[in-house]
Amino acid sequence: MKLENKVAIVTGGSGGIGQALCDRLAREGAKIVINYRSHPDEAQKVKQEIEQIGSEALIVRADLSKVREINNLVEEGINYFGKVDILVNNAGLEKRADFWDVTEEDYDLVLNVNLKAVFFSTQAVVRHFRETNNPGRIINISSVHEELPFPHFTAYCASKGGVKMITRNLAVELGSMGITINNVAPGAIATPINEKLLNNPEQLKKVTQNIPLGRLGEPEDVAGLVAFLASDEARYITGSTFYVDGGLLWNYQEQ
Ligand code: BGC
User: Which of 28, 95, 109, 252 makes a 20 to 30 Å CA pair with 158?
Assistant: First the structure.
């Protein structure tokens, strides 16, 4: 197993891609700190799955838009398991609106969870990595939209573009400590973030036609890469973005 004796925090671990990440990291032997904000039952289900696999899990509720709660999440993980080795910044959300209608409230929510929380969660674990002399791993679940425009989702794109630069910057700043940081950038994955799309057959067909591999991704399609990046085998990889998008990003065809 790749992650035996490792402890991983997965933010937004109760649903969507996060749930598959918890499951996969646990299968590789990691103990998991499952963070959630509003779905305690789902978090409980993920914990049970992890225990069935034969690993251990701790559930910690935190609203990641508050730095105090982020610090508490990391502290609880360290207190319970004795250390943290891996942080997966997975929690994220998006709000669709025409640019001229975006409210301050929605802008703040998207930027707080998708960008500010990545910054401060990473800061909290890096402080711990330094104190314990641990060359830990940070993996951000970004998006193809750290690169690709997504009209009506400008705040979302700004947040993911910001995550891209956090990763590049910290790869340089933290490299001397052996700490690595990388982005995994999914395309269209069949999770609740895409609920509207999944319930709109016409739009779904259009999106699927734009994906060279001809289907939406599954959370499990993302999880294997995250497990690899969290492992010792990935020790020489830092500051990079890896797309898991069925080829969506580079597909332009003149019809
Ligand atoms: C967004 C999805 C979108 C996908 C591909 C993701 O980052 O969350 O809503 O379908 O990118 O455009």
Answer: 252
Confidence of residue 1 (pLDDT cuts 50, 70, 90): confident
Question: What are the start-end ranges of the H helices in 210-255?
Answer: 219-230
Alpha carbon distance 39, 244 (integer Å): 26
Q: Which residues are catalytic?
A: 156
The one-character DSSP state at 236 is: T
HSE (side-chain half, CA atoms, 13 Å) at 68: 0
Residue nearest to atom 3 of ligand 1 (CA): 188
255 pLDDT more than 90: no
Distances (CA, A) of 237 to 27, 123, 165, 166, 183: 22, 20, 16, 16, 11
Asked whether the whole model's pTM tops 0.90, one would answer yes
The rounded distance, in Å, linking the Cα atoms of 81 and 71 is 16
Q: What are phi and psi of 34, to 5 degrees?
A: -95, 115
Q: What residues make up the domain containing 73?
A: 7-192+219-242
The residue written with tokens 């994906």 in the block is 211
Residue 1 in any domain: the answer is: no
Instruction: Report if residue 86 sits inside a domain.
Output: yes
Count of domains for the chain: 1
Q: How far is the CA of 128 from the centre of ligand 1 (A)?
A: 33
- What is the widest separation between alpha-carbon atoms in the chain? 57
pLDDT digits over 79-117, tens only? 999 999 999 999 999 999 999 999 999 999 999 999 999
| Cα-to-centroid distance, 130 and ligand 1 (Å) | 35
